[in-house]
Every structure is written in structure tokens, then in C-alpha cells.
Amino acid sequence: MRTTRTAEHGRSRPRGRNRLAWALAAAGTTLAAVMLAGALPQDGEARPAVRGGADPATTVSDHRPGDRVRHLAEREVCADGRDPAESLAPSPDTGVAVRRIQERGELVVGVDQNSYLWGYRTPDTGKIVGFDIDLTRAIATELLGPDPRIVLRAVPTSERVRLIQDREVDMVVRTMSITCDRWQEVAFSTAYFEAGQQVLAPRHSDITGFDGSLDGARVCSAEGSAAEDLLEAEGRALGAELLHVGNHLDCLVLIQLGQADALITDSALAAGHAAQDPGMHLIGDPLTLEPYGVAMHLDDTDLVRRVNRALEDFRGGGADSGWQQAYGSWLAAHMDHANGSAPAPPDPLYRD
Question: Which of 18, 46, 148, 304 can pair with 14 through a Cys bridge, CB separation 3.0 to 4.6 Å?
């Protein structure tokens, strides 16, 4: 795969009291890079297991009676009764959007460069690698054939929707949760992974979960993320001081600098952070059930169908599937579940 990259877009800065948090996160990027470099496994080296992962529990056990906000991790249902993970049925047809990509001769994809295991830039080669990048390659092959040309654009969480709407990227493959509200702004493929929001904090912390132990704690999330929505809706009631920054890795940096006490992000991303920094650990059970999807422009229905066709192939084939190979390469050693099971590709749901 021939890959080109452009520089990351400047992230929008938080206003008011969160401006200091943004500045500290930007200044501390090198610290996280050092932690990442130290965490990268060498060839033949065993990867450390991390408890938690993306297999949400049905219930959330109380650490302090009466102060738990959420008791069940429930899947979202949209106002029309649909599951947000429902998408358009796969099709091999070439429409306006697919033709535009093929005539250009390259696929422009918004990805992450800071999510260990999912999409991160390796310190030795500078290449962006991870589960989401393997998926991107499979989609590009579906659209452009063997040895596709892919432009990877590293984008912050808060810019994902805008870049799609402004057609600066053809799609975003960046652990983006499919939600009812986001369907009003962008279109999604079927789900390719399932996760849930979870608390991550230092091992020496007194924080016990998404409960009263957050009273007075500085809790960080990425702007434009489901974690930010959760904290804004329920975190203040627990007495938490909320910090919102451009990327979830910035939250890890703030904790490493002593400027935040915990972060909330998708459980699968949090597992990557814990693998990256052994001083961190996942706390409690996932608070939500959230599917990851490939995000595209609302008008690009033919592209959505072709991506879903690529996902059918990516998920299919059992142990030899592209999904299982990507999972084995990047995630398997870090998804240590209490019941001994491993995540499986989610079953596709279609609207038509």
C-alpha cells in the first residue's frame, strides 16, 4: 500500500477555564510519545494483558450505595425505533461518490495517529498503523483494486464531522461511535466493533468508578466525543470538574502531568492507554454500549453501500477473516475478559 499523509489540522481550542488544559495537553505531547515508544512491543515480545476491553457487562456493580448514576449499559434506540447501527444494504454498484474517488485515483481517509492499537504513528518508522488502518486498506482495495493509493489524514476527534461535511475527506475510520444524533450529521456503515465508555485512572487513585468518588476530581474527555456528552449530562451531578481537550491522548498527558485525575473514553481505546502506560487501569464496567462505524457524507449513499460490501468481506471467513487477522495483530493480547471470551465481529444490521 502506498500511503501519503498530511499534517494534522489545528484543533479548536476550548474556551474559558479549559484553555489551560488544552495548552498543557499540547505542551505534554512529547511525554505521551515517550510513553508510547516505551510501550511498543518488539518482535517476539509478549504484549501485556489489560483487563476491561470492549465486552460491556450487563450491569454495573455499586461501589458506593446510592451514588451510581448508571445501573445498566443499554444500547441506544433512536426516536424512530431503529438501532443506530443499522445501515444501507451492501451493493457493488458505482455511483457518484464512488466514481469521484475512482477518478481521483486515491482514497482520502481521516484517521487517528494517537490511539495505540487502533491508529498510531510508530516512533521507529513514522507510519500510521493499527486496527483501523487495516480496515482502511480493505475498504480502499474494494474501491480501487489491489495496491490502492490511500491518503491518511490525521484528524482530532472534534474535527471528524466537519471534515466529512466539507468533503475534505471521503470518510473517517477512527473508532467513531455510531449514535442517533450523529446520523443527523453524517452517514455510517454497519458496525465493525463494539465498545463502551469507561473510566481510566492511575492505579493509586481513590476513584472507584463513575460514581461519587468523582466528586472534586478533574475528569477529562475529548471534544466531540461520546464521553464528553456523558460527562456533560451526568458528570457534573457527581461533582466532577470537567476538562475537554482535542484528543483523548491529550487527557492521558494531562494525567501524566498531574493536571487531571481521570479520563473517560471508549473502553477499547482505554485498554490501549492502559497498555501504553502501565500506571493506568480501567475502573468499573463500561457505562454504555456503542458500535464503531465508518463515517461518510450523508449524500454519499453509494459509497456507504460499497463500504458495507467491503465490511461483509472483512468480517466474513471465520478465523481467516480480515477482521480476525487485524484483531489478532493489534488487540487480542490486550482484550483480557473476565469470562475468558474475546470480542467477535458484530453482526451487520441493515435498514433496507
Answer: 18
